[in-house]
Amino acid sequence: MILIVDDKPENIFSLEVTLQSKGFKTDAALSGEEALKKSLKNDYALIILDVQMPEMDGFEVAETLTGINKTKDIPIIFLTAVNKEKKFIAKGYASGGIDYIAKPVDPDILLLKVKTFYRLYEQTSTLQKMQKDLQKEVTQRKLAQEQLKLKFEEVNSILESLPQIAFTLDGKGTIEFVNQEWLKYSPNIASCPVIHPDDQGVLDTWSLHQELFEPFEKEIRLKKLHANSYRYHLLKMTPVFKQNNEIKWVGTLTDIDERKQLEKKKDEFLSVASHELKTPLTSIKAFSQIALRAMQDINEHKAYAYISKVKEQSEKLQSLVEDLLDISTVAS
């Protein structure tokens, strides 16, 4: 919208007719004070300002507008029927005007100037809006990065407090953070712990999961610094997706060697129990069957009933032992 400022209503009317005929929206002010109030309240793309006005002339209005942050970038065209000398023209430009036109005004020339300044104002406004949006986006990105940084610092603090080995990797697999437990297996952050020769294939398997951004879990044997033996660890790797689509990996290595030893002892026990329990039960069952066949002619005798009971109970006990061993094997 264009603001027309003139103390004479007929001049305002003439300009409004000219501008509105070309599709421009206009507003009017009959004094400098009214122009200032409207400029603070409304948004204008251009101000056409008469120089010769009572109380507050056009130069004073322009100087005030250019000193206000909201209105300082509004282009101002001065119109004058009296002050045509060079010194007044210079004063007009010095007070913030971008053009100085003497009356009577050629409508065609005025329209060309208005279109040019209007277009420049729109382009400037668009650029300023883009700049503000860009600044806002940069601020939001910085804030998001700062928040993400704090979150990862919090994660690192949590990882540092864990009793197992903990570490983080970037998207390429480069180590970024390790806790103190790591340094019990490796001399520094850049070196990986010593892996058992038979477990080296785990790294190749992990590479496939890394490409697919899939969680990874595998048992692996590691050797502590200055130790001669390897200990079983459970390796877990979890991808963490950042806001800018970057990937980080959080990994843990939990010592499960004692559990593995207990599982080994349990397997040994099951093997022994399978033999030690089944063998006598099989013998009892077999001998009771032989005794029953031998006593077929006296099956009315009490002894026959007792031996039948022994055979029946031994079969039940053998079934229970086999079920127990089967359950233990599945659980292991």
UniProtKB/TrEMBL annotation:
EC number(s) reported in the record: 2.7.13.3
All residue ranges annotated as the Response regulatory domain in the record: 1-118
Catalyses which reaction(s): ATP + protein L-histidine = ADP + protein N-phospho-L-histidine
Protein name: histidine kinase
Occurrences of domain PAC (ranges): 216-268
Keyword Phosphoprotein: yes
Keyword match Translocase: no
4-aspartylphosphate carried by residues: D50
GO molecular function (one): phosphorelay sensor kinase activity
Enzyme class: transferase
Gene3D superfamilies linked to this entry: 1.10.287.130, 3.40.50.2300, PAS domain
